[in-house]
Amino acid sequence: MDYLTWRHVFKLDPAKEISDEALEQICESGTDVILVGGTDNVTLDGVLELLVRVRRYSVPIALEISDVESISAGYDYYFIPSVLNSTDTKWVKDLHHEAIKEFGDVLIWEELVAEGYCVLNPDCKVAQVTSAKTDLTEEDVVAYARMAENYFKLPIFYLEYSGAYGDVEIVKATAEVLENTKLFYGGGITSIEQAKEMAAYADTVVVGNIIYDDLKAALKTVQAVKNTVK
Ligand SMILES: CC(C)=CCC/C(C)=C/CC/C(C)=C/CC/C(C)=C/CC/C(C)=C/CC/C(C)=C/CC/C(C)=C/COP(=O)(O)OP(=O)(O)O
Ligand SMILES: O=P(O)(O)OC[C@@H](O)CO
Ligand SMILES: [Mg+2]
């Protein structure tokens, strides 16, 4: 249940390369967890390789499942996304149903953490792959958040702007209606200021692409988030 207290997350994409030096700095940065996940080209080899490399450090490591073929044992947690604003039930519950039908007898349910995604950047890969309806008003997003918390009782509601910095007013309005479900924010964080701005409303701030574009800037987001009072 540690994820209830996470403030900062680095998301590593198993389809992208990262040097040993950069990985060491990411793992020793003080981040709360390394979340391994991506939308496409995620392979079992990539998922396994990152697990082995990150395990040299004490930071926890979680796998965000995007494809049932690339799940490796040995992670501390398995995060299971459902894209609530997908227009295709495959990404909401059908792949999940298939996986549970196949592995239901052997699943360790305590290791699985369900995430209700709301994907808001129309240009990101995850929006395209899942045919997400991204032209949502603040009211629409707030209703998804309420649905996640009060109806589906999901532990995590994830506002996903992958690749683009999000709308702070939407993040703020969403935070205001969530009591028990944790609000994850991810997307386009490239600076201390942006990290602080989102950390003021989100329980957990996820930093991804900037790791590969500007490692120093990525590392600075850890303390920026941790020093911000929500
Ligand atoms: C110990 C052991 C082996 C345990 C086995 C556990 C097991 C079998 C569990 C199965 C249980 C289960 C219910 C599985 C669900 C399976 C599944 C495939 C669900 C679908 C998940 C889904 C909706 C995927 C869509 C894509 C998505 C939301 C990915 C999350 C990551 C993400 C948003 C990345 C951001 O995109 P990115 O690739 O970074 O984009 P850019 O490249 O543009 O940056
Ligand atoms: O890669 P960025 O844009 O930082 O987004 C982080 C994460 O929310 C992606 O799933
Ligand atoms: Mg990415």
Structural overview:
With 230 residues, this protein is an alpha/beta fold. 36% of the residues lie in helices and 18% in strands. It has helices at 20-27, 44-54, 94-103, 125-129, 138-151, 168-177, 192-199, 210-213, 215-226, and strands at 8-12, 33-36, 61-64, 77-83, 112-119, 156-160, 182-186, 204-207. An eight-stranded parallel beta barrel has the order 1-2-3-4-5-6-7-8, surrounded by five helices. Helix 5 (138-151) runs parallel beside helix 6 (168-177) and helix 7 runs parallel beside helix 9 (215-226). The longest helix is centred in the middle third of the chain and has 14 residues, at 138-151. The chain starts with 7 loop residues before the first strand and ends with a helix. Residues 11, 160, 162-163, 186-189, 206-210 line the site of SN-glycerol-1-phosphate (1GP).
The structure class reads alpha/beta
Strand order of the largest sheet: 1-2-3-4-5-6-7-8
The whole-angstrom Rg is: 16 Å
Query: What is the string of SSEs from the N terminus onward?
Result: EHEHEEHEHHEHEHEHH
Query: How much helix is in the residues?
Result: 25-40%
Report how far apart the termini are.
Answer: 20 Å
The number of E-state strands comes to 8
What kind of sheet is the major sheet? 8 strands, parallel, barrel
Spans of at least 5 consecutive residues with low confidence: none
Shape: globular
Hey, roughly how much beta strand do the residues contain?
15-25%
List cofactors, ions and other ligands: the ligand CC(C)=CCC/C(C)=C/CC/C(C)=C/CC/C(C)=C/CC/C(C)=C/CC/C(C)=C/CC/C(C)=C/COP(=O)(O)OP(=O)(O)O, SN-glycerol-1-phosphate, magnesium ion
Number of helices: 9
Q: Roughly what is the average pLDDT, rounded to an integer?
A: 97
